[in-house]
Amino acid sequence: MGEFVEESLDNAKKELRRADHLFFVSLKYTRTVDVLKSLVARLINTFQFGCASLLQKAQDEHLVEEVPDLPRVVITKLTQLYPDEEMKNFLNFYLLLRKIDRAEFERAREFRRHVTMTAFVDDKKIELTIDIAFDYYTKTKEFLMYVDKIIQGKTEDEE
Questions:
Q1: Disulfide check for 33: which of 44, 59, 117, 141 has CB 3.0–4.6 Å away?
Q2: CA geometry: angle at 86 spanning 41 and 43, to 5°?
Q3: DSSP class of residue 70?
Q4: Do 118 and 37 contact (CB within 8 A), yes or no?
Q5: What's the CA gap between 23 and 44, in Å, rounded?
Q6: Both ends of the chain: CA-CA distance in Å?
Q7: What are the helix and strand counts (H, E) for the chain?
Q8: Do residues 50 and 90 lie in contact, with contact meaning Cβ atoms separated by under 8 Å?
Q9: Which residues face 125 on adjacent strands?
Q10: How far apart are CA 88 and CA 82, in angstroms?
């Protein structure tokens, strides 16, 4: 495994730990939309580093010439390299997180258990609550395990 692959994977794991802290500590005591937004940003960073490690592995194996910077190009390359349904679902989720992060939003019930961030994405309202944020965190964690499995070269039979 190349140095850059390992470094990107390590960065992804660090971002996930930061997201973990935001969710289990900061959000528990603060319960604001700002913490929810920060959590989404950390999840996006985790995806970016995870995708970068996959592309760097592909570059080391001479499957791609260079690792692209633009998220849309990254997603296209990864879809070509890993055409399975699981990767497609993870990349669609990554796109959703990016849209939520950039969207206009409203705040509701701050400082309470049911703090809600309502983002307006593609003419739809997406509500982000603590429970939904936990689902997003869990899905991002699953993505990182998936990436780690690919990087380590493990197949379904080896588990």
A1: 117
A2: 10
A3: S
A4: no
A5: 14
A6: 20
A7: 6, 3
A8: no
A9: 120
A10: 8
Give the pLDDT confidence of 30-69 residue by residue, as tens digits. 999 999 999 999 999 999 999 999 999 999 999 999 989 8
CATH T-level fold of 3-102+131-158: Four Helix Bundle (Hemerythrin (Met), subunit A) (1.20.120)
How far lies 109's CA from each of 118, 127, 130, in Å? 11, 12, 11
Nearest to 42 by CA among 18, 8, 75: 18
Reported residue count of the chain is 159
All structural domains of the chain with their residue ranges: 3-102+131-158
* The amino acid at 156: E
Matching residue, tokens 């950039």: 102
| Structure-block tokens of residue 103 | 């969207």
